[in-house]
Design the sequence.
């Protein structure tokens, strides 16, 4: 695949993701859902790894959430949420078992689309894909506090 073709595929995938953002809904963190969700802690290796990677790769901030990564036992979903300051304080969310198959979402006010912004969005999508692949390879994705 030529470099131009790869860039076209990356941009096309980013546009599809943006469209899905507009169609999708953020998994609610209402009091009703919070009772069903089990939080991960930094003792859970998968959470420690993804938060460190997201911070390093695209400047994710998890300081505004007591529970940035949650496990939903009813459907086996895992949701990671955080903020990206460089993208107008966009809230992002990774959903492991999203119905679309691509649970990478951004919720933001207007952001200027520049080459740098598109690169960052592609990095976010890449980190999401690796996170999902890592979760898929684990025998048990439940938080340590929920196992047993």
Sequence:
């Amino acid at each position: 695949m030529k470099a131009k073709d790869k860039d076209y595929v990356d941009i096309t995938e980013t546009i599809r993701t943006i469209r899905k953002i507009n169609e999708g809904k953020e998994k609610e963190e209402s009091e009703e859902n919070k009772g069903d969700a089990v939080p991960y802690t930094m003792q859970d290796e998968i959470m420690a790894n993804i938060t460190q990677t997201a911070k390093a790769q695209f400047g994710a901030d998890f300081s505004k959430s007591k529970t940035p990564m949650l496990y939903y036992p009813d459907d086996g979903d895992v949701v990671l949420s955080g903020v990206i300051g460089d993208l107008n304080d966009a809230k992002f969310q990774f959903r492991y078992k999203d119905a679309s198959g691509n649970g990478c979402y951004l919720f933001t006010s207007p952001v200027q689309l520049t080459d740098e912004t598109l690169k960052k969005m592609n990095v976010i999508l890449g980190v999401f894909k690796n996170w999902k692949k890592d979760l898929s390879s684990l025998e048990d994705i439940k938080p340590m506090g929920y196992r047993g």
